């Protein structure tokens, strides 16, 4: 196995203590209203979306934590509190892994979409450190979920992923992103959304195993097709991809 992990756990507790901003229920309500309004007008405001998630997600975070505690792999994640960023993940190592492994697919996603694992801010407004880590973990695996589902970072891809995440996590931020994000889709994207992406996202959200229970850092060398089978994910194939598969006469993929 190619080792692509530098430092397994940057001390989350210390970073959380430095960033945590205590707030009352009323203050969280004000923050939630303001961040929701700002996010609707400007979806590119990642800081506002983060604040919305933190101030409205307590019950969902408790649900997510219980799902992780019920899983051997999920409970290990909660115990070790690993982080995903450029200090803990050897991106150069991932780039050298065989194609179609999780590590290489994740690296290729980051490069193609010009995103970095360092773009996820530390949690500020969640008052329970254990729930704060669950939110942090959700943020840091978000790009991995994109890569696993084969969804780009355009509006259609983001809305599709938000539906999968919303169904699985129950986070109001995700469900709201799925509902209201669709309004901003271009006409061609809206057609794809209604006919293919939304039905697929809903089916995947309900049928796939809980994605927060995957210790991705220990699976970099796992073939993506095997991970799909394990998680009960059937990738969405676009017409272009289907045509390419036909032209290359690749054998059909059977996923149980």
Question: What structural keywords apply?
Answer:
256 residues, mainly alpha, 13 helices, 0% strand, disordered C terminus
| Total number of strands | 0
What form results from the Cα inertia axes? globular
Number of helices in the DSSP assignment: 13
Number of domains: 1
**Terminus-to-terminus distance:** 26 Å
What does the largest sheet look like? Answer: none
Q: List the uncertain runs.
A: 239-256
Protein structure class? mainly alpha
The percentage helix is 55-70%
Catalytic activity: a 4-hydroxy-3-methoxy-5-(all-trans-polyprenyl)benzoate + H(+) = a 2-methoxy-6-(all-trans-polyprenyl)phenol + CO2
Pfam families: Coq4 (PF05019)
Subunit structure: Component of a multi-subunit COQ enzyme complex.
Cofactor: Zn(2+)
Structural account:
This protein has one domain (12-248). The chain has helices at residues 12-19, 25-41, 46-56, 58-69, 72-80, 91-95, 102-113, 129-149, 155-169, 172-181, 187-207, 224-231, 239-248. It is 62% helix and 0% strand. The model is unreliable at 239-256 (pLDDT under 50). The protein starts with 11 loop residues before the first helix and ends in an 8-residue tail after the last helix. Helix 4 (58-69) packs across helix 8. The protein is an all-alpha fold.
